[in-house]
Amino acid sequence: MERTEISVVRLARAGDAEAFRELVESHSSKLFRLAWRITGDEATAEDVVQEAFLRAYRSLGRFDERAQFGTWLHRIAVNAALEIVRKRQRHLAPSHGVEEPPPSPDPGPDRVALGLEVERAVRSALAGLSPMERTAFVLRHFEGRSIAEICDQLGLGASAGKQAIFRAVKKLRRVLEPFAERIEKQEVKL
Asked: How far apart are CA 41 and CA 85, in angstroms?
């Protein structure tokens, strides 16, 4: 018989290390993607994931079984990511993210160069957003969360949540406008 996630949470709550490992394995990749999108840094995202699981483990006794464990864990990770990003901004100059591996060699060199330029511009623009704007944007446009979920996770009112997303989109649009015409020309040539 296959175990349900809530039964695994109950076992982990009772001290079963194997059950907690099962929860870590089933949620770590999603949390890493979320944390990487918020922080823009692979090592920092790994720290966020570790911190989120540590906090979750310490708080298992307070988990309300009527909620989804994944949603609860997601909120812990968002909070951990925001804390780390805020601390990093106070202590270090803003990061422009981690260099991505080069794209596939299939596209032509012009398209590859333009793609890398756009990617750098997006990473730079994301790094220039406030932690709240970046997190709200990531939750909305990368994670597909509703405005209500975003507001709930970030502890914002509906209008404040919408404003954070709107400001992020506006800033990103301003950075990406110069590329729009160049991308259109690339598509016509292909």
From this structure: 10
The answer to whether residue 161 scores a pLDDT higher than 70 is yes
Residue 135 confidence (pLDDT) above 80: yes
- Alpha-carbon distance of 22 to 164, in angstroms, equals 35
This prediction has a pTM of 0.61
Cα–Cα distance between 55 and 93 in angstroms, integer? Answer: 27
| Residue 175 pLDDT exceeds 90 | no
Dist CA 80 CA 162 (whole Å): 22
8 Å CB contact between 172 and 141: no
**163 pLDDT above the threshold of 90:** yes
Domain limits, CATH 1.10.1740.10, in the chain? 1-95
Among the CATH numbers 2.60.120.970, 3.30.1490.20, 2.60.40.10, 1.10.1740.10, which is that of 1-95?
Answer: 1.10.1740.10
SS3 58: helix
Please say whether the dihedral angle defined by the alpha carbons of residues 183, 184, 185 and 188, taken in this order, is positive or negative.
Answer: positive
